[in-house]
Each structure stands twice: as C-alpha cells, then as structure tokens.
C-alpha cells in the first residue's frame, strides 16, 4: 500500500505542478501579452479613469513576476479588490473581478456551477447505466454483430459533434413527436421534476454516443478478465457462472471504466460548451461563450483556469484509480 | 510501431518497430475494409465538390451570397416559398430562410472551409508535433523533461475551451481562417509529439541508428535520414484520426459564432442559424447537420482503416484514445 | 452596467431604451388584446412576467426608462405619465401625480405643477412636492448613477450640482413654495418638459426613508403595487397590492391582478416556448422584454389560437446606414446618393425577419404622428434598389468602374446592426458596382468605434430610438451641431454643424404646443434627409406572445410594449 500511496502522492504533486505551469501560461497569455490588458479587463465601455484604476488594481505597472505573484496570492489567500466604486474583499480563491458584471469572478462562476454539475452528473449516470449494461451483455455473447455495431457507434461517438446529435434529438422529440418540452433549465432546488424533465434531451445527447465507448470498454475489459488464469481456475473449480461474472469478471473490468469516467467528467465539468450553448443551459461552458462575446476577459481567464483545474485533477484521479486497480502500473 | 502502446498508460513498453508498409501495400490493406473504402469514396467526392465549388454553383446558376427576396415569404417571417425549404429547379436544395440565399451554393462553398481548415490545422499539428517529439526524443534529459511535461499539459487541455478563449484576445482584423488553423494547430500537437518521442526513443537504441551515430552522424542528420522515414507510419495513422476531430472543432467554433466571418459560408455557422428554424424549416437544419455528420464519419472511418492497415494488431485502447484525442466532444 | 457608471450617459440613452422598452411589442389598434382574449377584465389573481434581463436597478434615480418604464411604473408614480391606450393615443402625455401636464411661462423655461389631493405612499403618509424635489436631487448623486442625462442639461445649475448627499443646500432651480406646488427653472426653452416628467426621477422619495444605494431593495411605493420581495439583485421580484393607493387619484393604471411575480434570467427561446404552451401558471404570464423571432413567428402564424395571442407594437425606432462625410469617398454627396439609390430594402426587411417584423423606411423619423412623421423619399430606390441610377451617380462622381468601401457593423447575429443586414446590403450594392468589405466588430467595440469622433468609420450601420415620442429627442442628438461630443460618446455621426438646422431646433424647442412642434420636426427631417447623411432602412415592428388567460392587452405607440399596469388575468 505504501507504494500505491507514494504513487498517488507523486501523481497529485505532478498535477499541482502542471496547474502552476498552466496558470503562468494563461496569465502571461492574457495579461502580459496583449496591448492593454487593463482596457481588456475593464471592458470596452470603460472610461480612461476606470482603465487607470484597473491598471493599478491589476498592478500592471509592476514587473510581470510581481503581477503574477499578486495574482497567485489572490488565488490562495484572497485579496482586496477595487471595484470602481469602492473596495471589497475577494476571498480565496480570488480569480479577479468582472468589471462588466460588477461582480467577483469566483462568485459568477459559482453561480454557474450547479447547472454544469446537473448536466455532467446526469449524463454520466445515463451513459454508465446504458454503456456498462450493454458492455456486460455483449461480453457474455462474445463476437458477432454486437461487437461490430458497438465499434461503429463508438467511432461515430468519438467524432461527431454533440450539437449534431442534440439538434437531431430535438427535431425528433420536441418537434415531430412532441414528447419532451423545449429544454429550459430549471434549478434542482426549485422544482426537481421539471429539472429532470428539461434535462432529458441534453443528457441523452451527451450520453448516447458516449455510452457506446463505455460499452466497448466494459466489454473488452471483461473479456480480458474472463480469459485470465484465476477466472478460468474459478470456473474449473465449479464456481457458478453468475458468480464468476458478477464477482470477478465485472470487478476486474470496472477500474478502466471508472478511470475513463473520471476523465470524461473532468472535461465536462470544465465546460460542456456546445451542449450548454445549444440547449441554453446557464453553466460554465455557456458562460465562456457569453464572456468571449462581451470580451469580459477576467471571466474568460477564470474559466480557463477552472477548466484546466478540473481536467488536470481528473487526469490525476484517473491515474490513481487505475493504479489502485492495476498494481502493475505503479511498479512500472 | 504500435501507436496504441505509445499512447497508452504510463509505463507501457514499446515494441520493436517493424518496417512500415509502402503506400501500395497500405492501399491494398485499406481496400479490404469496406468502411474505410466507403470513407475514401465520400472524401474524394467532398474534395471534388470543394474544389469545384464555383463550377457547381455556376452550373446551378446561383451565387452563394446573393439574396433572393422573392424566394422567401416575407410576411411569414421569411420562410422559404415552396416545400422542403424552397426546393426548386433554380434552387436545388432550397434557400436559407430570411435571406433567400441559395443553400446548394452555400453548402458546396462551405465544404471548402470545413475541409480546408480541418486539413490545414492537421498539417500544423503534425509539423509541430513531429518537431517537438523529435527534439524531446533526441535532446538531453532536461529538454526531454521540459517538452514532455509541456506535451502532457497540452494533451490535458480541452481544445475547444482554449480555442474559444484564444480567439477572444486576437484582434478582429486578423484573417479568420488562418487564425482558426493556427489556434487548432497550436492546441492539438500533443498527441503527435508524444508518439514521435516514444518512437524516437525506441528507434534510438536500434542497431542501425547506433551505427550511424558511431559513424559520426550528428543528431539532426540522424533525425532526418534515419528516424523520419520510420516515423511515417505512426504519424500518418495518428493524423488520419486528427482530421475528423479538427473538422468537428471548426464546425463547433462556427456553431458558437466564433468561426469564419459572414458572408463566408460555413456549415457550422449555417447549422447554428438553422437551430432557431428547427420547427419552421427542418430542411434547413438537416442539410448542414447531415453534411457535418457524413464528413466527420467518413474521415473517422478512413482513419480507423489506416490504423488497422498499418497496424493490424492494434486493438483500440480506449483509455489511450480518450486521452490522446480531443474532438469537440463536450 | 450601471453599478460602475461605466456606461457613458448618452450610450445609455440608446442602449437602455432598447433594453427596457426596446424589443418592444405592442399591439396595434387592429388586434387589441381586449378583443382577442375575450371576456371582461376583472380584479384578482397573480400575473407572471417572464423576462430575460433582471431588473437590476429598482431605484427611481438609477432607472433609465421611457415613460416611467413598465414594471417600475407599477411602483413609482411621476408628475406626468404616458397615456395608457392602444396605438397612437398612447403616445400622448397625461397628468399622473400632478393635476395637469404643467403650466409653462411664455418661453417655456419655467414649468409649474400642482399635486392632486389624497396622494399617499404605501405606509399611508402623504406625498409632497418636497419629496419629488428630493427624488430629483438624488438622481444627481454619483452613487446613484444610471438615470437619464436631461435634467442635468436642462435645469439651471444642474451641471454643477452633486446630489443631496454631498450638497445639503439642494437645487435652487426647483422650488416648492408649498407641499402641493413645484416649480422648475430651466436654462433654455424646452417645450418637451411634460414628456420628460414621465421619467422615474420625477417619482417622490421620502427623505426619511432614503437608504442610499440600498433603497432599491425596498423603494417606498407611490403606485398601485409595493415590493414585497427582491431576490438576487432583481432576478425575482414580487409585487403586491398597495392598499393606500387610491384608484380615484390614478386614471391611468388599471391594476387588476392582486399580485405580480417577475421572474428573469430566462432564455428568449424558453420564454416564447413557455408562453406558447401556456401550461399551468404560464397561462397568466406575459413578457416585457422578449420579442418573437422570425422563426417563431413562422411557426405561430400557422396556428390560429397562438396567432390570436400575439401583440403587435410600434416603438419609434429607425435602423439606418450612417455616413461620416469626413471620410473619403463619403465626402462626395454623389457617392452617398448612389448608395441611397442602390439599397435594397426588401432584402433588409427579410434579413430582419420579414414584413411583419420590419417596415421599409425612407424617413429618419419613425412613421408616427407624435414624432412629426412627414413622408418623403429623397432618393427613391424602389422596392429592391435602383442600380442603374446609382451607377450613373458614381460615374458623375468619378467612379465609372465602381468603387470599394468598408461597411462597419456589429458582429453579433440577430442584431439589427448585425451581419444579416450587412451582408444583405453588400449584395445589393454589388449590383451597382460597389464592392463592400465587411468589418464586423463585437458589440461594445462596435459601439465605441462608431461613437468616437476620432475613430468613427465612414460607412456603418446604426439605429436610433428616442426617450419619448417627439421629434426633438429623435433629431437633435443626431443632427444638432452643438451636440457633437469631441471626447466621449458622440451621436451626431455625420458631424453636421449647420447653423440653419441648429437655429430651427432652438425655435421648435420653444413651442409648447406639441402638435405644432411635431409638424416643424417633420419638415426639418425632410430637409436634412435631402443631404443624404443617412440612409433610413427600416422601422422595426415588435411582436410578442402573451398567456391564454391574459386580458385587456394595451400596447401604446410610446413604448410599443404590452402595459403590465393594464393587464388582467381573471
């Protein structure tokens, strides 16, 4: 176990390092390179006075390294921020201030998180149920048409943009059949039934093709496990087939599925940009597109960092999960 | 030469490389796969359509940017006159609601943007990826570490989010198609780089490379003369899979309204304006959606075929694929 | 945006009018809602309002509205208000708290008002003219920025006054000789003063209850409803009947529902979808900021029941091409005229959603009597452009082989100044040998560029709406040479400084007979139109859905929007 713990620690440390590098890159790209970052941060409607104020706030007259240090300090310890009319405290993690919205970036993003979480977690549940279920079934009926079908759908799922599926589903279920309402996001806390009902289409759009990937993965991992020696031994000793499948083969097949889930979830938390835009879900992804349109730079930078955070974290978690399941990885 | 292993989980061992099959052999193996063959047929057709776009539009007698006020019903919000989105002898695939612009002409011109940007971005990614991968593989430990970690970061980043953010800070005057190619190219070289590095490392230890080194050949000379030819197969395999994901990314960005600028026709942008019309004029939605779908699928089928042809043993390691390639997924 | 007072005031003029009344949808007299919904309106029930933009500002000093706003008008009464009637009648100004629309002195520089009897706040205390004066003074405070700029420009001493928090002395140019009389002293003649007195800065604010920037959470109501909840900075507002409001003192507001629930932060498509299906509470719902799009309209028109629930409105607005004659080749009137002839208004109309959402315009003034509409077509382009005439003019101007120009526009799709209209014009001008390159800019960059004297391009799309239905606020900011703003937001895009035009504007402003003034504005519009400084393109028409149970839909030409004060849900 110590080996595993060490691996996990090492992996998380590496992830932290990557995040640090990422934050430097992003900071440099958005705040140091452009002509007048104060004007960009403040938004195009700011007066010269306000731009000057923002310049001081961002410390743009300081050397680049000091600026970055200030930014990091805000991120970990919070900082006081000038809002144009006064000063307010921006607690950690402080991602800056959106002058266009008159609000702190952190709180703007926090407001968007529930919608993104609703979308991602719901879709995940759906693709796991459909994907793993189909995978197990097809592993039991080895070979033939299921395998080819799964391969085809997986390929399509990896490539075809989600908005195409979304639009086609919308055409079918809303326009032609009239079974589902035109999706409109309702917060879970407001009306759980409406929340679920309105998210069915976005969930389906994300899950349909994704689940094929999971089915294929489950299937091949299970076949691998089933062919392993110890499983064969169980069979030889007359352990019942259901028990072999349920307790041993499935258990052996799950780690890669869990690892992949962590990865996909991380990416999706970082912003399911297209799905959210298509269905008008007020999450992080839609927020990104909106802020790019209005050139609200602090929000864009904040979102990019948050996205990077989720993705890098998911990668590390996936690796650790994978290692837990498959010790050989650690030893290698 | 197993790309899948190179792509796979940390610590996966590389096999001994084998000689890459020649172009003729590749084609022979591809021909055996029906899906790949169908993909090739569709792609050839699409490329021809893109190249002949002005000719095809002229044949129909339409201009992609010309408005036709009489082809839409102004009082009804601008729905096309006639059935199936205004299909007629003049407008073979109907017209765009509101403007009355000819859909056939816009779609064939749109093929140029989709294919052009998709392919050009792939070229940039491959060139960058090979360069970085070679440098990491041949360079000293420090350089290798630096480049490999950078590659890890690049691979982890969700392409779409970063592309959107980058497009935000570039001045409006910059030519948009070039910008799209650059942004997609700069964000998507990680996978190629990782493959090339691993491949280089394993080749480096081989006899003939060692012999060349002993013979006094410099690093870069070795890279050029000995390594690049052996890298061809895995790089071709991987780039065949990059094309569809780039096409999908371009469509996604255009769909979000940050792709090429109007009036340049692009499928993604057409689809995004079509979404508001999905009830009143479904034909308008189905055309660009279908085209993007078919194009991406055709390139994917070809890519998969190339992989199978070059490396018949490669079972798809999905975990690896999921990490290495990021299309416009979320 | 007003949190920061980032927005230059004049910009707010254009932007906020659009945002608040803007997308306006009102119903022309031809399909007045009362008829459509059937049955007599009755008291009771809850009216739901489904909106996109939250009511972030609910302080009468910070609100920038036309005619007192829609939802704000339920809580804030003002000296005068708009006539809440359908169509053209609705663009008249009528008394609200005051007994009449004001008594001017001879040259319209002094205006006197008297309050009605029995006016009370939500707590039962009496409304006095001192409170109205205090309310106006608050609107000068920097802390409460966002309101309209007119009082600062018009009131004597308004330029220097810093608001009641810094300047305890108050504004000397507003006198309150007794609790029922208020007198305004202006620095120049303004016949339109009664129209200005409809804005929320003229609402009474009791000094003792003023909580500064927090006042908007619970402003003291003088109208038929009071605020009982304001969640998430205006995202959810709940209004309930103000029992101290006396219908006998208010001839304008009907106030049928007992409760009004305003929910915002919704997507436009979602609002229209909910209104059209109208299930549950949505049957008693309306929207005050969401128009039907062309695609939605195309769907709805086929459905009789739905089509009967669409209100149509005409808010005074013009979308046009603007020239900057300081930039070549637009210094040559012949080039400007050639473009005026080449324009194809039918494709522009279609780009904006077809003939039910936009009407072709050849005058700068909106096609409404209150603005002084006088029909003219200085450069007849016909239905789809006169390319031959345009080519002829270009030849005369020295461009026999045509020319290449750049058209600047807003890059956001669906905008009236957006790429749809720009590409339509590009196509039309091509027929006349004019090659148009497009420069699409992000909304705020676009508006900053076209409104800066130094950055202004030669050829761009623009739009204009007035803060009240009169020729003055429509023409003066655009064509008055003294309103050219060198450093800041400039709306006189042609940078016209014509002494004759300036003099005529001053002359008309002296008129207190609004009808007579309107005729003169119309004549002035025609005269300026001949200079081809702009090419009027379209006047938008607004269409909006309302719920199944909604009765007594009144949509005036002033706001172009369904009036929430008149609606009944029982």
TrEMBL record, chain A:
Location relative to the cell: Cell membrane
Signal peptide start and end residues: none
Keywords: Cell membrane, Membrane, Transmembrane, Transmembrane helix, Transport
Topology within the bilayer: Multi-pass membrane protein
UniProt cross-references to PROSITE patterns, sorted A to Z: ABC_TM1
TM helices/strands, residue ranges: 12-33, 117-137, 149-182, 194-212, 257-279, 299-325
Residues annotated as domain ABC transmembrane type-1: 113-322
Superkingdom in the source lineage: Bacteria
Keyword Metal-binding: no
Entry annotated with the keyword Oxidoreductase: no
GO cellular component: plasma membrane
Gene Ontology terms: biological process: transmembrane transport
InterPro entries reported in the protein's UniProt record: BPD_transp_1_N, MetI-like, MetI-like_sf
Family: Belongs to the binding-protein-dependent transport system permease family.
The protein's name in its UniProt record: Peptide/nickel transport system permease protein
Organism, scientific name: Actinacidiphila glaucinigra
UniProtKB/TrEMBL annotation, chain B:
Keywords: Cell membrane, Membrane, Transmembrane, Transmembrane helix, Transport
Boundaries of every ABC transmembrane type-1 domain copy: 111-303
GO annotations of cellular component type: plasma membrane
This protein's name: Peptide/nickel transport system permease protein
SUPFAM superfamilies (UniProt xref): MetI-like
GO biological process terms on file: transmembrane transport
Annotated region (Disordered), positions in chain: 1-20
Organism: Actinacidiphila glaucinigra
Family statement: Belongs to the binding-protein-dependent transport system permease family.
A Pfam family reported for this protein in Swiss-Prot or TrEMBL: BPD_transp_1
CDD domains: TM_PBP2 (cd06261)
From TrEMBL, chain C:
Top-level taxon: Bacteria
UniProt keyword list: Signal
GO terms for cellular component: ATP-binding cassette (ABC) transporter complex; periplasmic space
Gene Ontology terms: biological process: peptide transport
Signal peptide residue numbers: 1-26
Domain Solute-binding protein family, residue spans: 92-482
InterPro entries noted in UniProt: Peptide/Ni-bd (IPR030678), SBP_5 (IPR039424), SBP_5_dom (IPR000914)
Matches recorded under Pfam families: SBP_bac_5
Gene Ontology terms for molecular function: peptide transmembrane transporter activity
Classification via Gene3D superfamilies: Dipeptide-binding Protein, Domain 3, Periplasmic binding protein-like II
PANTHER family: ABC TRANSPORTER SUBSTRATE-BINDING PROTEIN, PERIPLASMIC BINDING COMPONENT OF ABC TRANSPORTER
Record-given protein name: Peptide/nickel transport system substrate-binding protein
Lineage: Bacteria, Bacillati, Actinomycetota, Actinomycetes, Kitasatosporales
């Amino acid at each position: 176990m110590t080996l595993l713990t060490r691996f996990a620690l090492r992996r998380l440390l590496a992830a932290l390092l990557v995040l640090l590098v990422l934050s430097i890159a992003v900071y440099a790209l958005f705040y140091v390179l452009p002509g007048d970052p104060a004007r960009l941060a403040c938004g195009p409607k700011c007066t010269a006075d306000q731009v000057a104020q923002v310049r001081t706030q961002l410390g743009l007259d300081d050397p680049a390294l000091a600026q970055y240090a200030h930014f990091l300090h805000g991120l970990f310890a919070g900082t006081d921020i000038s809002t144009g009319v006064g000063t307010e405290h921006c607690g950690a993690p402080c991602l800056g201030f959106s002058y266009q919205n008159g609000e702190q970036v952190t709180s703007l993003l926090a407001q968007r998180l529930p919608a993104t979480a609703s979308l991602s977690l719901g879709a995940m549940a759906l693709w796991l149920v459909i994907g793993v279920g189909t995978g197990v079934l097809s592993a039991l009926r080895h070979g033939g048409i299921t395998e080819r079908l799964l391969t085809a759908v997986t390929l399509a799922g990896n490539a075809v943009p989600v908005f195409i599926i979304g639009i086609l589903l919308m055409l079918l279920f809303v326009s032609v059949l009239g079974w589902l309402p035109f999706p409109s996001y309702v917060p879970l806390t407001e009306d759980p039934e409406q929340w679920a009902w309105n998210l069915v289409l976005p969930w389906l759009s994300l899950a349909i093709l994704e689940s094929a990937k999971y089915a294929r993965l489950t299937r091949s991992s299970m076949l691998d496990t089933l062919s392993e020696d110890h499983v064969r031994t169980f069979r030889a000793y007359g352990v019942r087939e259901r028990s072999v499948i349920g307790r041993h083969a499935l258990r052996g097949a799950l780690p890669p599925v869990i690892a992949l889930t962590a990865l996909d979830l991380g990416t999706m938390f970082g912003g399911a940009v297209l799905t959210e835009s298509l269905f008008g879900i007020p999450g992080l992804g839609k927020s990104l597109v909106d802020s790019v349109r209005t050139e609200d730079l602090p929000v864009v930078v904040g979102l990019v960092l948050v996205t990077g955070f989720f993705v890098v974290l998911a990668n590390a978690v996936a690796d650790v999960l994978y290692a837990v399941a498959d010790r050989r990885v650690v030893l290698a | 030469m197993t790309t899948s292993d190179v792509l796979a989980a940390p610590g996966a061992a590389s096999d001994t490389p084998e000689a890459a099959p020649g172009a003729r052999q590749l084609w022979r193996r591809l021909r055996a796969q029906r899906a790949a063959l169908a993909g090739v047929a569709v792609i050839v057709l699409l490329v021809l359509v893109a190249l002949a776009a002005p000719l095809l539009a002229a044949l129909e007698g339409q201009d992609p940017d010309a408005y036709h006020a009489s082809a839409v019903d102004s009082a009804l919000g601008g729905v096309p006159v006639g059935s199936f989105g205004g299909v007629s002898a003049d407008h073979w695939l109907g017209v765009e609601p509101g403007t009355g612009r000819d859909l056939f002409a816009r779609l064939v011109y749109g093929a140029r943007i989709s294919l052009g940007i998709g392919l050009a971005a792939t070229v940039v990614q491959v060139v960058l990826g090979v360069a970085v991968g070679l440098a990491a593989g041949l360079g000293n430990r420090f350089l290798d570490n630096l480049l490999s970690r950078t590659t890890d970061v690049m691979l982890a980043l969700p392409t779409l989010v970063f592309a959107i953010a980058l497009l935000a800070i570039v001045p409006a005057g910059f030519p948009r198609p070039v910008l799209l190619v650059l942004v997609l190219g700069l964000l998507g070289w990680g996978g190629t780089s990782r493959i090339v590095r691993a491949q280089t490392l394993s080749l480096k230890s081989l006899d003939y490379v060692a012999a060349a080194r002993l013979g006094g050949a410099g690093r870069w000379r070795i890279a050029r003369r000995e390594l690049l030819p052996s890298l061809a197969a895995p790089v071709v395999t991987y780039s065949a899979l990059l094309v569809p994901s780039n096409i999908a990314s371009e469509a996604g960005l255009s769909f979000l309204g940050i792709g090429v600028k109007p009036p340049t026709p692009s499928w993604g942008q057409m689809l995004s304006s079509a979404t508001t019309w999905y009830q009143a004029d479904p034909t308008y939605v189905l055309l660009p959606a279908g085209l993007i779908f078919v194009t991406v699928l055709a390139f994917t089928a070809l890519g998969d075929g190339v992989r199978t042809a070059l490396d018949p043993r490669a079972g798809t390691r999905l975990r690896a694929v999921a990490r290495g390639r990021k299309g416009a997924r979320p | 945006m007003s949190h920061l007072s980032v927005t230059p005031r004049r910009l707010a003029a254009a932007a906020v009018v659009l945002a608040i009344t803007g997308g306006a949808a009102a119903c022309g007299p031809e399909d007045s809602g009362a008829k459509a919904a059937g049955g007599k309106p009755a008291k009771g029930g809850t009216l739901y309002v489904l909106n996109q933009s939250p009511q972030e500002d609910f302080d009468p000093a910070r609100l920038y509205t036309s005619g007192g706003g829609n939802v704000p008008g339920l809580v804030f009464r003002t000296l005068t208000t708009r006539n809440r009637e359908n169509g053209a009648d609705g663009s008249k100004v009528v008394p609200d708290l005051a007994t009449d629309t004001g008594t001017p002195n001879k040259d319209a520089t002094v205006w006197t008002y008297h309050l009605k009897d029995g006016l009370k706040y939500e707590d039962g205390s009496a409304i006095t003219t001192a409170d109205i004066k205090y309310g106006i003074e608050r609107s000068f405070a920097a802390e409460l920025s966002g309101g309209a700029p007119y009082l600062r420009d018009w009131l004597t001493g308004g330029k220097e006054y810093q608001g009641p928090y810094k300047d305890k002395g108050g504004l000397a140019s507003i006198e309150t000789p007794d609790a029922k009389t208020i007198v305004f002293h202006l620095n120049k003649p303004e016949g339109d003063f009664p129209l200005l007195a409809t804005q929320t800065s003229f609402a009474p604010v009791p000094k003792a209850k003023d909580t500064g920037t927090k006042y908007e959470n619970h402003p003291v109501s003088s109208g038929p409803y009071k605020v009982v909840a304001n969640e998430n900075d205006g995202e959810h507002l709940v209004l309930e009947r103000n029992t101290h409001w006396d219908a006998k003192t208010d001839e304008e507001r009907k106030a049928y529902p007992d409760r009004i629930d305003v929910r915002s932060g919704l997507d436009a498509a979602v609002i229209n979808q909910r209104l059209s299906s109208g299930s549950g509470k949505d049957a008693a719902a309306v929207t005050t900021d969401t128009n039907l799009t062309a695609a939605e309209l195309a769907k709805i028109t086929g459905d009789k029941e739905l089509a009967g629930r669409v209100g149509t409105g005409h808010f005074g607005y013009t979308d046009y091409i603007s020239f900057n004659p300081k930039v070549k080749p637009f210094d040559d009137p012949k080039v400007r005229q050639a473009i005026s002839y080449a324009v194809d208004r039918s494709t522009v109309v279609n780009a904006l959603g077809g003939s039910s959402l936009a009407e072709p315009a050849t005058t700068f003034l909106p096609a409404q009597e209150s603005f002084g509409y006088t029909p003219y077509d200085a450069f007849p382009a016909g239905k789809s452009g006169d390319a031959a005439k345009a080519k002829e003019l270009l030849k005369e101007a020295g461009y026999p082989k045509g020319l290449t120009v750049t058209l600047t526009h807003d890059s956001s799709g669906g905008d009236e100044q957006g790429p749809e209209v720009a590409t339509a014009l590009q196509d039309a001008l091509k027929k006349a040998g004019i090659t148009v390159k497009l420069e699409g800019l992000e909304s705020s960059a676009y508006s900053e560029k076209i409104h800066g004297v130094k950055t202004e391009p030669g050829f761009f799309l623009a739009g204009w709406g007035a803060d009240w239905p009169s020729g003055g606020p429509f023409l003066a900011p655009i064509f008055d040479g003294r309103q050219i703003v060198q450093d800041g937001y400039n709306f006189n895009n042609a940078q016209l400084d014509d002494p004759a035009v300036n003099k005529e504007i001053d002359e008309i402003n002296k008129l207190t007979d609004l009808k007579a003034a309107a005729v003169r504005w119309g004549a002035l519009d025609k005269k300026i139109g001949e200079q081809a400084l702009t090419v009027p393109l379209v006047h938008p028409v607004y269409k909006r859905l309302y719920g199944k149970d909604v009765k007594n839909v009144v949509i005036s030409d002033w706001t172009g929007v369904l009036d929430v004060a008149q609606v009944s849900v029982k």
